[in-house]
Amino acid sequence: MKLYSCVVRPAALALLMLSLVSCSAGRNAVSGRPDGSEHFVNITDVIPDVILEIRYHSTYNFVGDRVDGYDEPTALLTREAADSLKAVSDELDALGYRLKIFDAYRPQKAVDHFVRWAADLADTTLKRCFYPDVDKSVLFEQEYIMEKSGHTRGSTVDLTLFDMVSGREVDMGGTFDWFGVESHPDFCGNPDTGEYTGGVSARAITAVQFANRMILRRAMLRHGFKPLDSEWWHFTLRNEPFPDTYFTFPVRKLGPVR
Question: How far is 161 from 99, CA to CA, in rounded Å?
């Protein structure tokens, strides 16, 4: 019986190794995400019981239409921000709450849509729902609309609490994306001390509503997020991994990175 040699000559071995490296590089080029989304995760993969109400994928938002760049009603964050949010979720779960997210990563295309909408002073479709006391002409001046958003860096989230006992969203005394002082964390109280001070405004929130805002705020701060002084629902990871990068890929459910 004839035996066949399995010895590979050095030159042939070198050629084989070069071929394998080239194939591997090709696979990475195909399966990777050159748009930067490989640094992001689906929030539902990290926090399975999170509730999503992605307003900008719907028509119920201050624009009154689905916003550009929201291809699917899902929520994305950088891995670092998602892991910190998971710690928030675990803490609040023990108190009987779940997290409800309105927005997370926001592509630059969506921000550009906001800017175009704000420049069209005649379009006031949902003014009564989100900015009844604010003239649309001052949205840029008062920084309700800006050409850049922290959301586009991937580590900012807009959220509230959901009460698992009542089966309802927790009453925060105001709606997400309300343009006005009523949305400020210090409205009717001191967010640093948690002291409720009340107010004389017809829209003043109650002590319970203020306390509910503080439950969310304190949990977020304890796990590495920083607040915004004009929106009680808005938080950014303090040590965000991409502080100077504004991503452009659309909001859609991410597949695995191979």
Answer: 5
Rounded mean pLDDT, 98-119: 98
Mean predicted confidence (pLDDT) in 46-70:
98
Q: Is residue 79 assigned to a domain?
A: yes
Judged against a pLDDT cut of 70, whether residue 70 lies above it is answered with yes
Q: Please, are residues 150 and 107 in contact by the beta-carbon 8 Å criterion?
A: no
- Contact (CB, 8 A) for 109 and 249: no
Query: Is there a contact between 103 and 56 (Cβ–Cβ < 8 Å)?
Result: yes
Q: Give buried/exposed letters for 165-201 (b at 16+ CB in 10 A, else e).
A: eeeebbbbbbebbbbbebbbbebbbebeeeebeeeee
Which residue range(s) make up the domain with 181?
Answer: 40-237
Give me the torsion for CA of 78, 79, 84, 85, rounded to 10°. 60
Q: Which one of 53, 80, 231, 240 is the catalytic residue?
A: 231
Catalytic residue status for 231:
yes
